[in-house]
Write a structure and sequence with these properties.
By secondary structure, the chain is α+β, with helices and mostly antiparallel strands. The protein has 27 helices and 32 strands. An eight-stranded mixed beta sheet has the order 6-5-9-3-2-12-15-14, with no helix packed on it. Strands 17-18-19-21-20 form a five-stranded mixed beta sheet, covered by helices on one side. It has a five-stranded mixed beta sheet with strand order 28-30-26-25-32, with no helix packed on it. The protein is globular, with a radius of gyration of 28 Å. The structure holds tryptophan and zinc ion.
């Protein structure tokens, strides 16, 4: 074992949770804002908890800041009256209740981590979740300390005309030296991770909202002046979200002011600070010229997500960071329901399941696997994961389906009645659901502490004499690194039976004798058999409808059954899913055949099935496009024991090409019918039309014929919306033709002043499927458009390449791995959070062939040896390299 890895980092354990001895009940902060050195004066009302031992010292967290003075009830402490232990400031012998004044300095301009107080494009801005507040001042920086905040900001009036913090503005004024000040007060007690501060030259788009009970709320979205015209969609989305939460959950906004600030330099998507959300500009700014339909949809959903946190996260918060899914899983579920209500429920479900399968399932089956409620971590930053967010939302969705919409509402009401103003656990949430609905959810709670994706295997037997159909369901969860033994889970298995003509059959089983054609089987054991009566012909089973649980169904479908389900299933999700299963199986067949030097052919029946979908008169455009969007190589690779990127691509490319050849006329006709659409509307119908049009163009582009390439060129030149421009550019980017470079060059000339559009230009090249994509990535990393420290630029180029270009990143020569490791090692000292995210592109190295295994492992070891490697990156790399981990 290497030197670096022998100095194992010590994890924090859920089982060691203990409340702090003291509580900061109120805090008054004064900021003398200066880019180089900001002086923070914090006056805290501190009280020893009744249960705490009188001997215990006060312990405050602090990181990368400098203490200037400490006073207790006005008396300055001598240097020997306190001490530092690691990153903690320890003050022994304090009274039971007192006022503590801390003066310290921090350095926003030098802070490259984008955590704590930093400068984004000349604007002061803060990010405190999860443990950033300690980079601003010494504090009990944990979510179970809820305090009331008053904040005074002082700054140069010319450079920082706008001074913002949480809550309501109290007062403001100017100072003689060209400085000015503003004072804010937030009446709601909150944990430190929800504190926020912004100071800069910003302009507001202002609007109003009247809540259901008649409260007038001022809404403001702040941007730099030149982006002021791009906030209409965000504002409209905010108002929709506010109304929806009132109508759906009876939840109203609780302050007089709701503010959103858009910044270009942000580690993640957005942050729900009380009354002052801070957003990555990518998730606020949009107009038809610069944003795609996907961007518009992402903005609507993230604006809603952060707004919904005001109740699920802020009013009721997490006791500790192990409970992160308490707020994130629940809030993702809420934003998913919102989107489903605003647009198409089945499409939203399909999109969410695609993300879950292609990203969360691999996470759950790799070295970073952890339960929805993790039980240990080294850096909590590493656990803002798909498991906590997306699988967490699936767990809430199962609860919702178990107790029903009305029961869920009663459970939510009880949760808020019991816990408003508190910091609680996932158990408290489940208890509210159980108590409000009289449901026993004890076994259900295993979903919170058991990692790994459960698999279900189904055996069927039709008894032609008894006219019964027997369904035997086996469930098992493969072991994960930390949890070798798995218990059976509660799996709600939504299903139906179809007769030979595709008609739904009434389901008579157990004590059910009615005419219902859909049911939810309560799978709770490792093996269970369900018997359906009065089944007079061999039925076709439609399983896991609407993806009723986050599991993998292992079932041997024959192709006829799959095509039958694509055509007839009454469940829209399962029609789509059957097509996905059909394609996945076909790619695997193609791989086998190509390995044996047999030339594979797509069966006529498959082509017909897809032709029927493409020409369907009952499906809408968006659903047709979703069905013809094939699973990616990465997703299909999950089915293989050893992931073989070359074989996968050869097979998938062949299949796509054969489909394009066979359906060329259909794709061409459907394309032309929609091609003259110059509209910019973002209504569901227009978006669906563009999606189908660009899907057709994608298949046609695959044929690399002049006429189709010309369509792509025309779209890039003439389209009046960014969706169609990108649809064309994406086709060209994969081709080796002069039109490609012309289009990319013209695009850059037009848009190089718009960072968010430049990101699209970087990504389309980083994810190109043509050989040599890695050369482009290397070249672009030295291009002026690339800023090596801006998280959006990094994600657009390096992230897109490593996570989104499976083919080029996994090139057999290992250049992709070296490029990533080099970049991670350069970035780690600057921004460890982003670095540890990027390195995860290599952690599933054990899933690949021996050669790639060796290449990835060598790069992971280089990163592990990096002198001064951050805890963030070390935790990920150590887990990846630990012996005996899952792939
Ligand atoms: N709480 C935020 C959300 O889900 C996400 C978040 C966590 C975050 N940590 C962050 C955002 C750090 C930016 C930076 O909406
Ligand atoms: Zn969130």
């Amino acid at each position: 074992m290497s030197d670096a890895s022998s100095t194992a980092l010590r994890p924090v354990y859920l089982s060691e949770y203990r409340p702090a001895a003291f509580t900061v009940e109120a805090v008054d902060l004064r900021f003398d804002l200066d880019a180089d050195t900001t002086r923070v004066t914090s006056t805290m009302q501190v009280r020893r908890r009744a249960e705490a031992n009188a001997e215990e010292p006060l312990i405050l967290d602090g990181e990368d800041i400098e203490l200037r003075s400490l006073r207790i009830d006005g008396d300055e402490l001598d240097a020997d009256a306190y001490r530092f232990e690691g990153r903690s400031l320890v003050i022994p012998g304090v009274p039971a209740a007192f006022e503590l004044t801390v003066v310290n300095d921090c350095h926003p301009a030098a802070n490259t981590t984008r955590m704590g107080l930093y400068i984004a494009d000349g604007t002061f801005c803060s990010q405190c979740e999860p443990e950033g507040f300690r980079r601003i001042t010494y504090f009990i920086d944990r979510p179970d300390n809820m305090a009331v905040y008053s904040v005074t900001l002082v700054a140069d009036a010319a450079r920082y005309p706008v001074l913002l913090s949480n809550g309501n503005p109290l007062d403001s004024g100017s100072l003689p030296d060209g400085r000015h000040w503003a004072r804010w007060h937030d009446p709601f007690p909150k944990p430190s991770y929800l504190f926020a501060l912004v100071a800069g030259a910003l302009e507001a788009h202002e609007d109003r909202f009247t809540t259901a009970s008649g409260r007038e709320v001022t809404l403001r979205i702040y941007t730099e002046a030149h982006n002021r015209g791009r906030t209409d969609h965000a504002m409209a989305s905010l108002k929709k979200a506010m109304r929806w939460d009132e109508e759906t959950f009876g939840l109203e906004y609780d302050l007089d002011l709701f503010q959103i600030v858009s910044v270009d330099d942000f580690n993640m998507g957005a942050m729900e600070n009380k009354g002052l959300n801070i957003f990555n500009s990518k998730l606020v700014l949009a107009d038809a010229d610069t944003a795609t339909d996907n961007d518009f949809q992402a903005i609507e959903s993230v604006i809603a997500h952060e707004y919904f946190h005001n109740w699920t996260g802020n009013r009721v918060t997490c006791r500790d960071w192990f409970q992160l899914s308490l707020k994130e899983g629940l809030t993702v579920f809420r934003d998913q329901q919102f989107t489903a209500d605003m647009h198409s429920a089945p499409l939203k479900r399909i999109e969410d399941v695609r993300v879950l399968r292609s990203q969360q399932f691999p996470e759950d089956n790799g070295p970073m696997a952890h339960p929805v409620r993790p039980d240990h971590y080294i850096k909590i930053d590493n656990f803002y994961t798909l498991t906590v967010y997306e699988k967490g939302a699936e767990v809430i969705r199962m609860l919702y389906n178990l107790v029903g919409a009305d029961g869920f509402r009663r459970g939510m009401d009880l949760y808020f009645r019991r816990h408003d103003g508190q910091a609680v656990t996932c158990d408290d949430f489940v208890a509210a659901m159980a108590d409000a609905t009289g449901t026993d959810l004890d076994r259900f709670k295993r979903w919170y502490h058991q990692a790994g994706t459960p698999r279900i295997r189904v055996e069927e037997h039709w008894d032609h004499e008894q006219h019964t159909h027997h369904l035997t369901v086996h469930q098992s969860t493969p072991p994960t690194a930390d949890q070798p033994d798995k218990q059976p889970l509660v799996i709600p298995l939504r299903m139906g039976l179809l007769d030979g003509r595709g008609r739904p059959l009434p389901l008579k089983h157990g004590d059910r004798d009615g005419e219902d054609t859909e049911t939810v089987l309560p799978v709770t054991e490792s093996e269970q058999t369900f018997v359906f009566r009065e089944v007079r012909e061999r039925p076709t089973v439609s399983l896991l409808r609407n993806f009723s649980a986050p599991v993998i169904v292992e079932r041997e479908f024959d192709d006829d059954t799959l095509r039958f389900l694509v055509a007839h299933d009454t469940d829209a999700f399962n029609r789509w899913d059957s097509a996905q299963t059909l394609v996945t199986g076909r790619v695997l067949d193609f791989m086998d055949q190509q390995a044996r030097s047999v030339t594979p052919r797509l069966p006529e029946a498959d082509i017909e099935a897809f032709r029927r979908v493409l020409n369907s008169e009952v499906m809408d455009d968006a659903m047709i496009a979703a069905t013809l969007t094939l699973p990616g190589a990465r997703e299909i690779g999950e089915e293989l024991d050893v992931i073989d990127p070359d074989g996968l691509y050869a097979a998938r490319d062949t299949l796509v090409n054969q489909l394009a050849e066979a359906l060329e006329d259909d794709f061409g006709r459907i394309y032309r019918l929609r091609a003259d659409d110059r509209g910019t509307g973002i209504d569901a119908e227009s978006m669906g039309r563009r999606r189908l049009k660009n899907l057709c163009l994608g298949y046609l582009g695959d044929l690399d014929r002049d006429a189709y390439v010309q369509h792509a060129v025309d779209q890039v030149r003439a389209a009046r919306n960014m969706t169609d421009v990108m649809g064309g550019l994406r086709v060209l980017a994969d081709l080796d033709r002069p039109e490609r470079d012309e289009a990319l060059g013209a695009f850059y000339d037009k848009w190089h002043d718009e960072p968010l559009v430049t990101d699209k230009w970087l990504t389309v090249q980083a994810t190109s499927q043509r050989p040599g994509a890695i050369d482009d990535v290397e070249r672009l990393m030295a291009h002026p458009a690339f800023d090596r420290h801006n998280p959006n630029r990094i994600r657009a180029l390096v992230g897109a390449f490593a996570m989104g270009n499976f083919r080029a990143f996994h090139a057999a020569d290992g250049r992709g791995y070296r490029l990533l490791a080099d970049f991670v090692m350069e970035l780690d000292p600057v921004n460890p959070q982003i670095a540890s995210g990027l390195v995860q592109a290599m952690i599933r190295w054990r899933r690949f062939d021996a050669r790639r295994q060796g290449l990835m492992k060598a790069q992971l070891e280089r990163v592990q040896q990096l002198p001064g490697c951050s805890d963030n990156t070390r935790e990920v790399v150590d887990r990846a390299l630990a012996p005996g981990q899952a792939g």
